[in-house]
Design a protein that fits this description.
Length: 235
């Protein structure tokens, strides 16, 4: 395991993806990213003070693809748990893998894959103040609690907790994880728009299914979605 630290970098995910010699749990941390990436080609604003990091997870050939398909949910679960240890706030989970607090986004996760490595990238609005552009949608922990956090300590706690929660998941605890995520389900009962690649659907957010998909009520019918970005109506 290696730790790569940068004052400034395009993206910690891109860096690990392109790394020639990869090791399990190599970590890249950047104080600032110039091309921070979110899901669906979105930009992730990466101002000084936030925690921007990625780490590698080597695929285990004995574990099924189906089990790995829920990895983003397991990362989200783990991140929730780490935040709950840090502050007694009502953190929520927004399927597929964002953490919300006070109706605003605190943290986002981007899971990618290259060869037999998953690249798990996490952005946390920690000590940064949210820029004008994102103020309506995002919030940082410091803006809520007025505290300054030790960034590296939090990053290594996130990774340590993830290792433990991944073992918990692989040892057969998916339903426990799922129940917890559903108890923290930010989208439950909300009017949402599902932004699929070529069309948009409107409905009411329901629960996360056993497969890790999201149930949405559309015109009285329950449908499940595995892809697509979910937007809350009016946002
Ligand atoms: C999202 O909300 O869509 C996911 C955001 C993920 C941002 C993190 S910051 C560290 C890592 N490097 C990136 O370019 N993206 C992830």
């Amino acid at each position: 395991m290696k730790i790569y630290r940068f004052k400034e970098l395009d993206s910690t995910n891109t860096f690990l993806k392109n790394l020639e010699i990869k090791n399990n749990y190599d970590v890249a941390i950047a104080d600032k990213q110039t091309l921070g990436r979110g899901r669906s080609g979105n930009k992730w604003s990466s101002e000084i003070g936030g925690a921007y990091f990625s780490f590698l997870l080597k695929e285990n050939p004995n574990i099924s693809k189906e089990e790995y398909s829920r990895l983003p949910l397991v990362v989200g679960y783990s991140l929730l748990k780490t935040f709950e240890k840090l502050e007694g706030l009502d953190f929520k989970f927004k399927w597929t893998n964002d953490i919300y607090v006070l109706d605003k986004k605190l943290s986002g996760i981007l899971v990618e894959k290259r060869e037999d490595f998953y690249i798990i990238g996490i952005g946390i609005n920690l000590n940064n103040s949210i820029t004008e552009e994102f103020r309506e949608k995002g919030i940082s922990l410091k803006e809520i609690t007025n505290k300054d956090y030790n960034k590296e300590e939090l990053i290594f706690n996130v990774i340590e907790d993830f290792k433990n929660n991944l073992n918990y998941y692989f040892s057969g605890s998916w339903y426990e994880i799922l129940n917890y995520l559903n108890s923290k389900n930010y989208l439950f009962g909300k009017n949402i728009i599902i932004d699929l690649r070529n069309k948009k659907e409107e409905g009411i957010g329901q629960t996360i299914s056993k497969k890790g998909e999201f149930f949405v009520e559309i015109k009285g019918e329950i449908r499940s979605f595995s892809i697509g970005e979910i937007h809350i109506k009016g946002f």
